[in-house]
Amino acid sequence: MFTGLVQSLGSIIDSQPTAAGRRIVVQLGTLDPIHHGLGQSIAVNGVCLTVAELMAPGVVGFDVISETLRRTTLGSLPPESRVNLEGALRAGEPFGGHFVQGHVDAISEVLEVKSSINDWRIRLSLPPAVAPLIVAKGSITVDGVSMTVADCNSETFSLAVIPTTLQATTLGTLRPGRQVNLETDILARSIWHYLQHMPASIAALRDPAGKVATGVHG
User: Fold this and answer.
1) Which residues, at least 6 apart from 100, have a Cβ–Cβ distance to it below 8 Å?
2) How many Å apart are CA 206 and CA 198, to the nearest integer?
3) Which domain does 68 fall in, by range?
4) What percent of the chain has pLDDT over 90?
5) What is the number of domains present in the chain?
6) How far is it, in rounded angstroms, from Cα 200 to Cα 63?
7) Are residues 176 and 137 in the same domain?
8) Those residues with Cβ within 8 angstroms of residue 46's Cβ, 6 or more apart along the chain or in another chain
9) Portion of the chain with pLDDT greater than 70, in percent
10) Residue 96's pLDDT band (boundaries 50, 70, 90)?
């Protein structure tokens, strides 16, 4: 489990094909390697990966399987690419973002970046598969960064990004044409899943007389 609060800007040192997918080597930046050893989870641009090898101080290797490569942007990132990093949430740590699993739902494309001293806006494509889950003022994770949706329509949504986020993450480097990983809010996903299956749920609640049990008596 993660929060979407980026802890370090790392960089990809190497990315090589393997029989199962790719081996990606990442320099952890300021992320404390003492707490991120073998078998530990790290979100890399919003993708939960397991440390497979300790290669040097502050340098780790991840095995990324074909399914992950197909559903995320990790396979397209060349060496020297900057990446957002977050270690798994530990008991007792502050929870300042929102519930993030590190499971990417869709890939989105940056359509427009409006930058100024007072207002930095990023507009992105809205993949049809996740359109019902992205709402104005709701939570979204973009390349591992917990954000609030500024506005949305049937085809696009936008983010209003504060200077701190621009400096501490890769969002400040996004330009039109770039692709990013999206993870929708787990609460929105759960509610949508329930609504999609509500007819079956209602049928299960019917009493023997065929009436829906509402819990209201009168």
Assistant:
1) 1, 2, 3, 4, 43, 46, 141, 144, 146, 183, 186
2) 13
3) 8-87
4) 72
5) 2
6) 40
7) yes
8) 4, 72, 84, 100, 102, 104, 141, 142, 143, 144, 145, 181, 182, 183
9) 90
10) confident
| Comparison of pLDDT for 107 and 192, the residue scoring more | 107
State the pTM of this model: 0.87
**Do the bridges between strand 106-114 and strand 179-184 make them parallel or antiparallel, or are there none, so unpaired?**
antiparallel
Which among 81, 165, 68 is positioned nearest to 107, based on CA atoms? 68
| Torsions phi, psi for 53 (to 5 deg) | -155, 140
| The one-letter amino acid at 206 | R
CA distance linking residue 168 with residue 130, whole number of Å: 27
CA distances from 67 to 61, 87, 194 (A): 18, 22, 26
Mean predicted confidence (pLDDT) in 28-47? 88
**32 contacts: CB under 8 Å, gap ≥ 6:** 87
